[in-house]
Hints:
Elements: H1 5-9, H2 12-43, H3 50-66, H4 72-95, H5 103-125, E1 130-131, H6 136-139, E2 141-144, E3 147-150, H7 151-173, H8 175-185, H9 187-192, H10 197-222, E4 225-226, H11 232-245, H12 250-270, H13 278-292
Antiparallel strand pairs: 1-4, 2-3
Helix pairs in contact: 2-7, 2-10, 2-11, 2-12, 3-4, 3-5, 3-10, 3-11, 4-10, 7-8, 7-10, 8-10, 11-12, 11-13, 12-13
Amino acid sequence: MEFFQPILDMSGASFAQHLVNGISLGSLYAMIAIGYTMVYGILLMINFAHGDIVMMACYFAFFGITVFKIPWYLTFVGVIIATVLLGVLIERAAYRPLRTAPKNSVLISAIGASFLLENLANYLFSGRPLRFPEIEVLAQNIEIAGTQVQAISLIIPVVTIICLVILLHVVNKTKIGMSMRAVSKDYEIARVMGINIDNVISMTFAIGSILAAIGAIMWGIRYPGITPMLGVMPGLKCFIAAVIGGVGNIKGAVLGGFILGLGEILIVAFFPQLSGYRDAFAFIVLIVILFYKPTGLLGEKTTEKV
Length: 306
């Protein structure tokens, strides 16, 4: 009975605060997971450098605000532009030359790009942890029904939903979105239809990098510690979120992100004695879901392209 005592002792205000934190973390996971799932939907490969792109975006924001003294709102615009350029550069340098190579070669290149960014950040910025600049208007606490909630925790889900709506509109209603869907179905047929495959893939990386930059900014404000290894665990969890929801499915990535975020926060809130196993929760959920539904919750059965 003692194991369940924290649940019995929890007040309504405390539960509401944990719920807000869970939704906030889930929104961050969802935002970053979309980048993974978009690249997989087009290339059938995982961009393992995506989490490290998030890390670099955090450094961009840090130096823009603290070193160059640029106003935070202008810095955030600059971070998005710089992150997009970085994402497209990685695609052109690490993935485009291997477009017709075996999948294993592309996978190794993706892992190499990830290690390159981590070591480059360690060389340029040192391994000393830095603190993301505090932005008062976003970091202030707001009282809701007797509960103190950080403003950014309320903003993150709203931004995630707005980005999701815009992205779904782009994918489903625009010409570039139609091209992305065509390329994801069949490379060769799309090429015959006159679609520029390289441009479509570069655009996919650019959109994923925009989401990574926005996610990095919100992550830095919410969890201000910055290190060269910042993107490793969030990147891994966001990849798991994409797989849980059905890798290649945008809505599935969002669903997976919310499942992980809420699960992590609530399991620690309800069972504090299990807080040391918080990171293991993601892997347990992944194993259980894939055991019963190998394609993920919203995934569809597909055949390997040859």
